[in-house]
Amino acid sequence: MALVRQRVNPELENDILTAFITNTQFINKAIKWYRPQYLSDYTGIVAQWAIDYWETYREAPGKNIQNIYNVKKEELDLALAQNIDTYLTILTTQYEQKADFNLPYMIDQAHSFFRRKAYEQMFTQGKDLMIAGQVEDAIRLHNAFQGVAQVQSKWENPFDPKVIRQHFADRDDDMYVVLKFLGALGELIGGLEVGWLVAWLGPMKRGKSFWIQETLFRSAIAKNDTAYINLEMIDKGVRDREYRRLTGTTDGDPTGIQFPMFDCYNNQCGECPVSHLRENDITLRMDDAERTQPAWGRPGYEDYEVCTACRDDPDLRENYLPDIWYSIYNQEREYSRKAVETAAGGFSRMFGDRI
User: Fold this and answer.
1) Same domain for 20 and 137?
2) Which string of DSSP letters, residue by residue, matches 63-101?
3) For the whole model, what pTM was predicted?
4) What proportion of the chain, given as a percentage, has pLDDT over 70?
5) Does residue 129 sit in the same domain as residue 200?
6) What is the mean pLDDT of residues 252-264?
7) How many distinct structural domains can be found in the chain?
């Protein structure tokens, strides 16, 4: 049976080369799969220039590739130099678009391409050995072959500067992060990555359904295509929750929503040991022996400010005595078909049809 060679897609090779030139994260990932013989003609030469630059400066060369070419072109034959010059001219005009290409997709394409090239070369070498009658050598070649996709264990010195640099490059690499929550929650749990299975756990009526729904919206806002499957609630209940989240309305008391406002008892009594941190000098709890907490926004005390400065400082935390106010937020947004349609239209225009 004749060996059939697959024709190499020159556009894919050019895309891989462009990624080597313009994107540091791509090099960080692809360098462990790449071998110089995997790219043909001028693409292999320019890719090696980009890799040499990355090994020195730990970043993709970007527009500096033109300077490298100007230095190296005297070493090339005329036809090869012309091919490289044409490619770099095209790259210069498309640089901004290529710098913002789909990185995860390009990583997958390069991995698949390098994997195929590795197997093609192994099969070709094995066939040559078989034709030459070196069967045992062909078997050893097959057994020793390490495919591009195979994970290899290796010894490494954790104090080696190269290992340290790669560790922090991987740590800062968020190309596989599909969404991240805002604020303290996002800082606590970090980004949610491709391939993860995430569960919201808790007793009944603790907000699991709310957070699943919030994950749905956050994923859509991050412009991920997102499917939502609910086996617990009927469609009407699911839709109602989605529409209220979309419009920012509540199904509770129509007169308003109670929001907790965290404060300190010492702040309310005017007895703060670190009074210079207080936002104001107004004292609230002094009208009776019990020092009862007055209602929020009491006439004459509208300028009072809550204070939680000691809560956030480990050295001062013992001074913080938690006390909570409840402020009423008057809901001004309307929950109606028109309001939902308007909000849905705006959401789709901004983030696309993602759900």
Assistant:
1) yes
2) THHHHHHHHHGGGS-HHHHHHHHHHHHHHHHHHHHHHTS
3) 0.42
4) 76
5) no
6) 71
7) 3
Of 120, 144, 168, the position where a domain reaches its end is 144
What interhelical angle do 41-57 and 64-72 show, nearest 10? 120
Measure Cα distances from 291 to 11, 119, 235, 313 in Å. 77, 80, 50, 27
Phi-psi region of 40 (alpha: psi -120 to 50; beta: other; left: phi over 0): beta
Q: Is the pLDDT of residue 189 over 70?
A: yes
Range scoring the smallest mean pLDDT among 158-172, 180-194, 229-243, 295-309: 158-172
Tokens 């809560």 locate to: 311
Tokens 């045992």 map to which residue? 136
Whether residues 235 and 274 fall in one domain: no
Q: Do residue 270 and residue 345 come from a single domain? A: no
Q: Are 63 and 95 in contact (CB under 8 A)?
A: yes
Q: Give 17-32 pLDDT, tens digit per residue.
A: 888 998 888 888 888 8
Which range of residues forms the domain containing residue 298?
257-329
In this structure, are residues 114 and 34 in contact, taking their beta carbons and an 8 Å threshold?
Answer: yes
Lowest mean pLDDT among 147-161, 201-215, 273-287: 147-161
Q: Which residues, 6+ apart, have CB-to-CB distance to 213 below 8 Å?
A: 228, 241, 242, 245
Tokens 């190499």 -> residue? 8
* Rg, the chain, Cα only: 31
Q: Is residue 310 part of a domain?
A: yes
Report the pLDDT averaged over residues 268-285.
77
